[in-house]
């Protein structure tokens, strides 16, 4: 088997998992979205932050949607 064929086969096998990871709503897309939400400056009051982000829920979806990132 010639080397170019081996390289093409190896590259094809390596890329088989990429559609799940890199597509819209894939793992990378969700991770980048969550990171962007964490970087948004917070406009929440102390009461709102306690309500949405208290008791260890600092990284929950509700906290990130309502209050953004760190104060």
What does this structure look like?
About 65% of the residues lie in helices and about 0% in strands. It is mainly α and about 70 residues long. The chain has a domain at about 45-70. Helix 4 runs antiparallel to helix 5.
Search tags:
71 residues; rod-shaped; 5 helices; mainly alpha; 0% strand
> What proportion strand?
under 5%
Give the overall shape: rod-shaped
Q: Whole-number radius of gyration?
A: 20 Å
Q: Are there runs of 5+ residues with pLDDT below 50, and where?
A: none
**H/E series:** HHHHH
Compute the number of helices: 5
Taking the alpha carbons of the first and last residues, their distance comes to 59 Å
Mean pLDDT: 76
- Major beta sheet, specifics? none
Number of DSSP E strands: 0
Structural class: mainly alpha
Q: Residue share in helices?
A: 55-70%
Q: What would a concise description of this structure say?
A:
The protein is mostly helical and 71 residues long. The protein contains five helices and no strands.
